[in-house]
Amino acid sequence: MRYTEIAIAKPFEGAPKINVPDCFGASPKKPLLLKIAASGQRPLTYNAENLPAGLTVSNGIITGVVAEEGDYTVTLIAENKHGKDEKKIVFEIHKDRVQLTPLMGFTSWNAFGYQVTQENMETTANRMTELGLSEYGYNHINIDSGWQGAYGGEFDAIMPNEKFPDMKGFCDRMHAMGYHCGIYSTPMLNAFGCSMETVPLPPGCTQGEPDDRFADERGGIGVIRKEKNNAQQWADWGFDYLKYDWRPADPYNAELMRKELIETDRDFGFCVTLKARPEYHKYWEKYCNSYRCNTDSMANWPNLLTIYKTYFDFIEYINKGHYFDLDMLDLGRCDLFPNGYFIKEYGYTEDEQIVAYTMRAITASPIQISCILDQVSEFELSVYCNEEVIAINQDSGGYAAKPLMMVEEGNKIIHILKRKLSNGDEAVAVFNLGETVETVKVYLDDEWEVRDAWAKKDLKPTSVIKLLEMQPHTCRLFRIKKK
């Protein structure tokens, strides 16, 4: 029996509700794309007032190029037979100012592993649209390792293998649906994602003899640099985001790639993984939209706790546009490593799935769904599509969640995190991560109003919320504000 009450998601019913963050960033003189994500009964009509020169809106998707730097306040509008919703957002047009809120979307790794195909990705994008996920802000379709072939082509860059016959066509189709496109690579000679006995090994963005200044993981990092070649190729295809993956990650190799991405004619979000260690935080927190220093997510409880705990090494460094990544969210069925390299055991309860999502929401982690979406239960859809929980994750302030209380005594593990929000509200997440039933009290001033974000219900004004018999592996998420 589930402990946490959650509201049932109905993406295509009722009056419109615009689910876009308060800010959106892009560079001047580079293509911009923003889908006006809005739930509500179809058909919807869309408009955008006070768009800066160079932008237009069609079928709910804003596209174009803004020539002049600046901050532009735009009113987004969605309307259907039940009513109308309006929301003001700020277009922040400045060089390399992208992904101001945590990335949301789909990534292929836990869903498909190295066997991912272009067909998988296009089918997934269509399914996300059919389910309504794109109307809640899931606007990235990211290809992880598994696309790489040999070097070649116009730019002497990594070409796709036979599973991806038309990269440019893929990006064009995703953009037409309102999605941004992500791709994966590494500075290592050989990418993660397959056994070292695989022939041929998937190449990375360097070639030649290993550079003895860097670790020998996956053959090391080559002395011949191909960052420019690959950045130009990805931009030519139309990609918008790069996951750059090596161990240990370092600012030197990250900056070589970041510099080349900026020099292309497209904006790129930039994620550094796998081991972006805390001692390099000054680089990550300034130049990376997201960064990881944890193991891959594996959809079981011990793994979830291990990943969650890595957040606290970076809590002081999170800021707007630069977020710590708790890795992929694999709540449903996945086909990770079907070649037998790794066997995955699944065991999340429904409450544990809510905990996994809540951890990402409160800590401002990217939320990247990574499961096969052919069969999505009402419960799973309701976890993915709660606009109040998503609004906490996507808050434009970029503030970190900080511990309000942390008790760890044997099997008793209670964590309470509080996060400041841009409008003066606060989000409070209460976790029972241990193995015992606990009674937890969260004390609040009498001046606060309390909203249960998962249930989407207002609670009676009180100076104390008493959570009686909070079950193991459960959580609650509240939004509180001054009366």
Which term fits the overall shape?
Answer: globular
Kindly report how far apart the N and C termini lie.
34 Å
* Count of DSSP-assigned helices: 10
- The value of Rg in angstroms is 22 Å
For the record, what is the CATH homologous superfamily label of the largest domain? Aldolase class I
Based on the coordinates given, report the CATH architecture of the largest domain.
Alpha-Beta Barrel
The proportion of strand residues reads 25-35%
Spatial order of strands in the largest sheet:
20-19-18-17-14-11-10-21
In round numbers, the mean pLDDT is 94
| CATH domain topology of the largest domain | TIM Barrel
Number of separate strands: 29
Helix content: 10-25%
By secondary-structure content and strand pairing, the structural class works out as alpha/beta
Estimate nothing, just give the exact number of structural domains.
3
CATH class of the largest domain: Alpha Beta
Structure description:
- With about 475 residues, this protein is α/β, with parallel strands linked by helices.
- It has 3 domains: about 80 residues, Sandwich (Immunoglobulin-like); about 290 residues, TIM Barrel, CATH 3.20.20.70; about 80 residues, Golgi alpha-mannosidase II (Immunoglobulin-like), CATH 2.60.40.
- The protein is built from 10 helices and 29 strands.
- Strands 20-19-18-17-14-11-10-21 form an 8-stranded parallel β-sheet.
- It starts with 16 loop residues before the first strand and ends with a strand.
- About 0% of the residues have low confidence.
